[in-house]
Specification:
single chain, 664 residues, alpha/beta, Phosphorylase Kinase, domain 1, Rossmann fold, six-stranded mixed β-barrel
């Protein structure tokens, strides 16, 4: 049977084009196809198992209303009409009695599809006057840094890494997230390129690297500043490039001057010789490229750390050649405006930072939240200070709607459950923050059970609440047209995307400072932007040391099993906390015992794995675990602080400090 084509919209930079096998109206298998050259015919193991996600026992099949205590998962089946009427009634009542800001939409990253988020959903919540959500759990400080320095200039195309002589993977693990970068790295290494990995974990690429730096979490800023200082001290600064293309270099170098290699090595707890070797390689190599990930932003210094990392190619003049420069995000190359489809301007209501959702859900919050509408997300499994969120979800006066594909941990606290379609069951449009592509896909199968799309549900609520207006784009084609109308290249893209059920468009791979320049007003790099300098406590590039009575750093990286918490229900194996052998021996712990991981926010009961995958002083629990993965239903997010990064309002997951002891 011939395969059907589709496109993956999930949270990954690769934007894979897909080949989907369908038999008797059911998806039986997925694989990669060749339309996206980066996909190259293969996909990750996560999405390969997508049929299990669609047809598994956790799939929500019909609307339901809570029938029992919150958190216990008891629900009774109802019709769509009854569920939507209940929701519309509560939204109208709360808006009338408490104001629109007592309504909070909460979700992010369940899909990166343009039609699934910030289209008709935004229309509903804007017209209700609901609180606005700052979706800052990922990429907010790094995005602010990239915008401040380069205006979010597009980065080196992932395919072009094979042309590099030096590749630096800094705070990123492509083997778990974004696997299609691995083949270009391997091709570059076959041609003699050096590979440097900076990560507190011994990732698959770190095991193969020419140099692996495993710093203490939160110390990326001192390392980057020490490299900048070394470049200046050893005549490796490209002064001609700085004069022609930058502002603020003198101020950046002045702030880097106190950071010697020896001082940074001591703070980061890495060998001084290894840090010097990295500086030498970076100074001497061309083309040299930095793949700047999001691991370095997840601490109190995260914005400044990313800015310092992104400044290094400018200081050393690594631009102007294919395979030279940096990659952060390429989303601006095919910038779309999904909010054009909302057909409603932004409101001036209060903003709730999603990293502090627990604070917003507290009974004494001002104004209090009385309706929580969760979609495209599973906050109990993905947001910091999860136990505070759980206490908010238990409030008897909080009306919670969860609109999802499967019965998540958060869904168990819902008052009304709504079953959502997957991307293989509805229309979608997506671009990417890695691959330079845009793809339009249409359903390949009918929805499972009574599942409905975001467009259908939010459109129906607009109708019931009398918020729909004549001329609102409502069909998938109308919404796509509205989104493309906001793009500078919308007419060309619309023509290409009209050619078939799944259309594909791409652009020429950029060369930074040849075909792609900073998108700042003067097309220059601002190495010490005033807006970031004033926002960061102590100023941009100011290092703030974390003092804690708990001795171990807890990190929760992505894994090969989940995309954030998506697909977490498919992994039935118990989770294990990974601890370095030296730290385990100091506590009298051995492999396989059940331990208590704790701090002032909560505790997790979990089995122990003793392994040098982590550096001394660091323990690891994977990102996106569900409650069923641990002995007491708590995860790493129960131990993560809800403090924010130096600017950008980002999450500080890697500032979690814990102690580990035998569970008695």
């Amino acid at each position: 049977m011939p395969a059907t084509t589709s496109a993956c919209p999930l949270d990954c930079p690769d934007a894979c084009s897909l080949s989907v096998q369908v038999e008797d109206g059911r998806v039986t298998a997925l694989d990669g196809d060749q339309r996206n050259p980066l996909t190259a015919g293969f996909i990750c193991g996560k999405v390969r198992r997508f049929a299990e996600h669609m047809y598994g026992t956790d799939r929500l099949l019909h609307p339901a209303i809570r029938d029992g205590a919150k958190g216990e998962g008891g629900f009774r089946r109802v019709t769509w009409d009854e569920a939507l009427e209940r929701i519309a009634t509560e939204l109208a009542r709360v808006r009338s009695q408490h104001g629109g800001e007592a309504i909070l939409p909460l979700g992010y990253g369940g899909s990166n599809g343009v039609l699934t988020q910030d289209s008709v959903d935004a229309r509903l919540f804007r017209r209700l006057g609901a609180s606005r959500l700052a979706r800052t759990v990922c990429a907010a400080p790094s995005g602010a840094a990239a915008l401040g320095l380069y205006g979010k200039m597009a980065g080196v195309a992932l395919e072009d890494y094979e042309h590099a002589a030096l590749i630096v993977c800094w705070g990123v693990n492509p083997s778990a997230s974004g696997i299609h970068l691995v083949p270009p790295i391997n091709r570059a290494r076959e041609r003699g390129a050096k590979l440097v990995v900076i990560d507190p974990l011994r990732t698959p690429l770190a095991k193969q690297a020419d140099l692996h730096l495993a710093p203490r979490p939160g110390t990326d800023l001192p390392i980057a500043l020490a490299i900048a200082n070394w470049l200046a001290a050893h005549g490796a600064i490209d002064h001609a490039f700085l004069r022609a293309h930058t502002r603020g270099a003198e101020e950046l170098l002045a702030r880097a001057e106190p950071w010697s290699i020896s001082r940074a090595a001591e703070i980061a707890d890495v060998p001084q010789s290894a840090l010097e070797r990295f500086a030498e390689l970076f100074g001497a190599s061309s083309p040299a490229v930095i793949r700047c990930g999001w691991g370095g932003e997840r601490n109190r210094n995260g914005g400044s750390a990313t800015a310092a990392i992104l400044a290094l190619p400018a200081l050393a003049g690594k631009f102007g050649v294919r395979g030279g420069g940096y990659t952060m995000s390429n989303s601006r190359m095919l910038a779309l405006e999904p909010l054009r489809a909302a057909a409603e301007p932004e409101t001036n209501t209060r903003v709730v930072n999603m990293n502090q959702a627990g604070r917003a859900l507290a009974a004494d919050a001002s104004p209090p939240v009385h309706v929580l509408f969760v979609y495209n997300g599973n906050p109990l499994a993905t947001l910091p200070n999860a136990e505070l969120i759980r206490r908010g979800l238990l409030r008897p006066d909080l009306f919670t709607v969860v609109f999802d594909q499967v019965m998540t941990d958060t869904a168990r606290y819902a008052d009304v459950l709504l079953p959502a379609t997957t991307f293989l069951e509805h229309d979608e449009l997506r671009t990417s923050y890695g691959a330079q592509v845009i793809q339009r896909s249409r359903p390949v199968v009918s929805p499972v059970g009574e599942a409905r799309s975001n467009l259908d549900v939010f459109g129906a609520l607009c109708e019931r609440l009398q918020l729909a207006r004549p001329g609102d784009p409502s069909t998938p084609d109308e919404l796509v047209a509205a989104v493309l109308a906001g793009s500078h290249d919308g007419e060309r893209l619309a023509g290409m995307l009209a050619e078939g059920d799944v259309a594909f468009a791409t652009i020429e791979r950029p060369i930074q400072f040849v075909s792609e320049f900073p998108r700042t007003p003067d097309r220059k790099v601002d190495l010490c932007p005033a807006e970031l300098d004033s926002a960061a406590p102590g100023g941009l590039y100011h290092y703030r040391e974390l003092v804690s009575r708990f001795p171990l750093s807890l990190v929760s990286p992505a894994s090969r099993k989940t995309i954030s918490s998506t697909f977490g229900q498919l992994d039935r194996r118990p989770a294990r906390l990974v601890m370095h052998p030296g730290d385990a021996a100091a506590r009298g712990l051995v492999d396989g015992v059940v331990v208590r991981v704790w701090n002032e926010l909560g505790e997790v009961h979990v089995s122990l794995s003793v392994d040098d995958l982590v550096r001394p002083g660091v323990v690891m629990l994977p990102k996106g675990l569900w409650a069923r993965a641990t002995k007491n239903g708590a995860t790493a997010n129960s131990l993560s602080p809800d403090e924010l990064t130096d600017f950008g309002g980002g999450a500080t997951f890697n500032d979690a400090r814990v102690e580990v002891e035998l569970l008695g």
